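Morning. Coffee machine broken again, so started the prediction first thing and wrote up yesterday's gels while waiting. Chain of 441 residues, entered below exactly as on the submission form.
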Amino acid sequence: MTTSEGTAASADTTASTGPAASTGPTASESTAASSGAASSVVVTGIGVTAPNGLGTEEFWAATLAGKNGIGPVQRFDATGYPAKLAGEVPGFVATDYLPSRLIPQTDHMTRLALVAADWALADAGVKLDEWKQFDMGVITASSSGGFEFGQNELQKLWSKGGQHVSAYQSFAWFYAVNTGQISIRNGMQGPSGVVVSDQAGGLDALAQARRQIRKGTRLIVSGGVDGSICPWGWIAQVAAGRLTDSDDPDKAYRPFAADADGYVPGEGGALLILEDAGSARERGAKVYGEIAGYASTFDPRPGSGREPGLRRAVEAALADAGLTAGDIDVVFADAAAVPELDRAEADAITAVFGPRGVPVTAPKTMTGRLYSGAASLDTAAALLSIRDGVIPPTTHVAPAPEYDLDLVVDRPRTAPVNAALVLARGYGGFNSAMVVRGAAR
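Came back before lunch.
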């Protein structure tokens, strides 16, 4: 392993395993942007492993068609648990994509991440033998590490004894394992790390990658691919009290609905290739768009009387991008489907954009919330929206009028999309906002 949580923490983003730390200040980014000193960072490749599609174009076609990737849990028997639905990646056979030597040393989550990284690099046209190893890095997000691998080895320890525990347990469970395995597989020895901020992590990792590219690294593989669909991981998610107990896949996850009662968890996510715009242009790379703005905040202590931090994150991300609310064509919502959290998010959106002032969408209703993979998958969807001039729908939701949101429901909406705002919030008070926009022609 070449990376650790501390790597990310030492470079402006605090890596944390709990709610005690923020995802870090953004003042330095805003200062650099306003001074004109910051370089443009663009996305040149996307790799997706999602519950409604393996591969970027399959995922995107399924999303525009409203295909639901949520169903009864298949990876273990969830009969005795209050939550029985999940978004699971279908038809994924790791040996179809990865060498057999990697299978015994990796968790299911890491196998998904390795394949997503392969696809993203291929999409970006990166030929690894033409790159210097120290010009490439890996920064991913994680919410829990390889829980399924860890559970299996602990069961061996309890039932058979320590001699039956895999030596790979020493790292296969760890938060930084996706970063480490991707960097080793591809010979990437540049700045690397992992960010741990629950479901805000996908944006925080992309922001950390942008920082490293602005410091001189040519290419970073970044984003999040996550998954803890196993008894050990499941009970940890149930304990948070935010999962729906519905057993109807088409009615379970209903953000911004009057009868919302929690979300459906899932696995998968997206990894993106970030590069300096000038470098990408020189090598003739295809460009999906620019990571134009970012900010993160932390909610105050409950009962303090202070306003939640999401609105501040949105306003700071817009300022970092040099844009106004009127420049944003769509908001990809965090969409917790927990009434008080939906209320806080709707209030933040309407405070910045006005009532029904901007189209809002939550395509994660088709995948479930993928923890650290959710926000990077939304970022990929935002870039595809810019590419194709279409806003993907929020499915199976009848929005409550009191939220005052222009929620795009049931079917895609054709519209020019030049800039999109992606929102993400993590358990314990993490808030992150990212602006992506089309690259200059």
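Residues 1-36 have pLDDT under 50 and may be disordered. Going to sketch it on the whiteboard this afternoon.
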